[in-house]
Hints:
Layout: E1 2-5, H1 10-19, E2 26-29, H2 46-61, E3 64-74, H3 95-105, E4 115-125, E5 130-141, E6 157-159, H4 166-169, H5 171-177, H6 179-196
Parallel strand pairs: 1-2, 1-3
Antiparallel strand pairs: 3-4, 4-5, 5-6
Amino acid sequence: MKLLLATGNRGKVREITEMLRDLPIEIVSLREFPHVTPPVESGKSFAANARIKAETYFRQTGLVTLAEDSGLRVDYLRGQPGIFSARFARDGATDAENVRKLLRLLRGVKTGKRTAHFMCAVAIVDGKNLWTAVGKCKGRIAARASGRSGFGYDPIFIPKGYRTTFARLGEEAKNKISHRARALRKARAILERLLTE
């Protein structure tokens, strides 16, 4: 089976490919389909945006499509950046710009009030069915960026039960406990069922 990962984000492609690596599927990304038209992510939730992406790219490619939408919700900021995580600082913002804005908004906020969680929603479309799976990872926001692994907000997110950021834990450890890992374990079970049908 050929599976389209509906993302151009290299970090996400790497993580998802690693988590699905032993399934008998050929994984391709949007980089192999430069002429597809991206959808307007008009959903009000991560799950809605994941569905929009999966359905849009399935229609254009005809391939079984896995899309995900994920982001960071900070309690002190009433759930921001949420579904706008990738463009928190501005449209087209870099990871570093988003991190700087978040740290600026939390400047002076005490550790106990810096609680946050990552959310990930995965949608899979095969033309007949649509499945969704959700994963969550609780933690808090560090006072400063630390570590070089990962992407996005990884340098400032400390998962619950740990003392260091995702970016310092490294990909192998992150891929066991992250929001994306939790959602993809459920998505993997869906793909396994598809493969046996």
